[in-house]
Amino acid sequence: MASGSEDTFWTQDPEVAASTDVELLKRAWRNEKASPEILRFEEPLVERVREQIELLEQTVEELRAEGKDELMISLYQMDLDRTLYLLRSYLRIRLQKIEKYTIHISKTDLWGRLSSQEQAFAQRCIIIMKEHLEQSVLGKLPDGYKDVLKQSLASEDDDMVPEPPLDTFVFCKSRGDLGPFQLDDSVYYMIVHRCKNDYRLVQKHMEDGSWALVMLLIP
Amino acid sequence: MQIRNHFPPLHQNIRAPHLQFLNPRFCSMAGQSDPHVSLFSPAEIEFFAEDEMVDIVPNLRVEALNMICGDYGPFTPQIPAKVPLWLAVALKKRGKCAIRPPEWMSVERLTQVLEAERDSSREFQPLPFHYVEITKLLFHFAQDDIPDMYLVKSMVEDIRDVRFHKVELGLETFTNRTQAVKLKNLSAMEANIIRPFSVRALQAFYKHDIPDVASQTAATVNRPSMADRGPRRTLRPR
User: Fold this and answer.
1) Which of A13, A147, A196, B208 has the CA that lies 20 to 30 A from B142?
2) Running along chain B, 238 residues long, what does each successive block of 10 average in pLDDT?
3) Which chain B residues are Cβ-neighbours of A199 within 8 angstroms?
4) Residue A170 has what pLDDT?
5) Which of B1, B46, B67 best probes binding to A when mutated, by most A CB atoms within 10 angstroms?
6) Is the ipTM of this complex over 0.85?
């Protein structure tokens, strides 16, 4: 099993804590779902998973050609389906966020977190959305109210750009003793406010992989 | 290779093929959940649970499987092996193995857990993170492998009820002073159920009851607060 990362990371059972790429991708998906802003695209990881998927697809073809046991083929096919589902889920949740916060992402340094394909997607999104808004609404409004980004010319900021709500509580999952939180070896859920120092701690641990951001609710 | 470089349309209901046979009840919900309603759908949580390891006793010979998610086997009749739950269920459905119920699913162990759950009004007993999903899948697909299945099933239901009652009591203790909540030994499904309510409640307290904290926060993150920007219409989500 090729595994390009030596990260330690949180898992339900330390005994099965093999850092397979599937586990890493699951973590990436979970964190992406739980975090309001878009996270860095896991390019090398996605690449490795794609390669493994291709390899297994070939293997399944070969086994079919060899007339191997149907059972074995179907088990491999299930593994393949599960991995594909995981990869698609990861890509889709990112696209959902990009669609929602396209302009915000394009104007901030969040842009660098997108893959080149996602950037192309976001650019097309902006163009289409702009065209649509101009044709359907903005063109018919009086002068001074025709801007896509501003409520009116009087607005100093671009105040019509949806931003991910960062001022909110997040749910995190962890185990072990971490920073100011005295935790034993059990599974813990923490609900902490994002804008507190606690959250910086969460972010740090999320980056080094010891915490999984598993859920969060946008108010 | 099925994945193409252009992206598939969003909001299309994707279904996980392996989930469909595993749990018909959740079939219609197997698509990607809306991140703004509830982060993980029950089907997605179940997807995670299916990777938990279980012991099986195969009754046929199968070569070693080198899968993307790990290497399993080779399988020899009557020699126990550890496999992920989804693989165990797949073999079980074809009548190719018996699943050994995990140790914690015995009547004795569950009795202890249930008593301990009832004895302490605050603490949750340590149970597998996915105990709800694991038991549900095993009750569905491996009935004949679980001794005293109906007793075990009703005990697991009792444990769920007792625990959930505690969760509800815990939610009542939230106040406008609550800044962080620590929940020990909460399972995946339980956490998933309380997520929308608890975070929204904390958020509401935070917004309305402690304005000094709110302005302090705005200062720390160096972001203008809502009040600084003048009247601002809340944008509807697209």
Assistant:
1) A13
2) 35 34 33 49 91 95 92 94 96 96 94 93 87 95 94 96 89 73 83 79 74 46 38 47
3) none
4) 72
5) B67
6) no
The DSSP string of A109-127 is: GGGGGS-HHHHHHHHHHHH
List the domain range (segments joined by +) for residue B110.
101-217
Q: Could you tell me if residue B77 is inside a domain?
A: no
Look-up of token digits 């005994």? A15
User: What is residue B230's predicted lDDT score, i.e. its pLDDT?
Assistant: 40
Q: Is the peptide bond before B74 cis (omega within 30 degrees of 0)?
A: yes
pLDDT of residue B123: 84
Q: Mean pLDDT, to the nearest integer, of A15-38?
A: 78
- Across chain A, mean pLDDT equals 78
Report CB contact under 8 Å: B204, A219: yes
Residues 6 or more apart whose Cβ sits within 8 Å of residue B219: none
**B27 lies in some domain:** no
Residues contacting A36, CB < 8 A, separation 6+: A164, A165, A166, A168, A194, A216, A218
Interface probe for A, chosen from B1, B33, B36, B69 (most Cβ of A below 10 Å), is: B69
Taking only the tens place, the pLDDT of each residue in A63-112 is 999 988 899 999 999 999 999 999 999 999 999 999 999 999 999 989 99
* CATH label of the domain that carries residue B167: 1.20.58.1020
Predicted pLDDT of residue A197: 52
Kindly identify which residue of chain A lies nearest to residue B30, measuring between CA atoms. Answer: A85
Using the beta-carbon criterion (under 8 Å), do A82 and B47 form an inter-chain contact? yes
Mean pLDDT over residues A165-170, rounded?
72
Answer yes or no: is B57 within a domain.
no
Q: How far apart are CA B122 and CA A6, in angstroms?
A: 38
